[in-house]
Amino acid sequence: xTAHDDDTVAAVGKVSEALEYVERARxxxxxxxxxxxxxxxxxxxxxxxxxxxxxxxxxxRLETDMVGRNVxxxxxxxxxxxxxxxxxxxxxxxxxARVRDELVGGERHLFEANMKEDRRSRGRSxxxxxx
Length: 131
Known about the structure:
- By secondary structure, the chain is mainly α.
- It has one domain.
- The chain has helices at residues 6-52, 56-66, 77-104, 110-119.
- Helix 1 (6-52) runs antiparallel to helix 2.
- The two termini are 15 Å apart.
């Protein structure tokens, strides 16, 4: 591990921290995608059940307007996920890697690695520097 000045390590760490938040947001976006897909399938089943119960007009109205409806103009959730992945997320990942490559030799989690080195109890089981 090459020594790097503390200000650089902290700044690079902050870029990576921001990316970690984007990763978490991406996970929520995938949850949204799955939840909306499940809701649409469930709503379709509910329309079938309404028909079976003798409420065909209500089922038709609900199904025609809501089942398979775009969640955003022109988009189902898979299209939102794909656009996010292909655009913002991929671009940010490239920038994070480039910042690390240029400023800290590509090392990841350098701030945390330094913190671990400062905080661990040397020589104690469970406090090893590396696996």
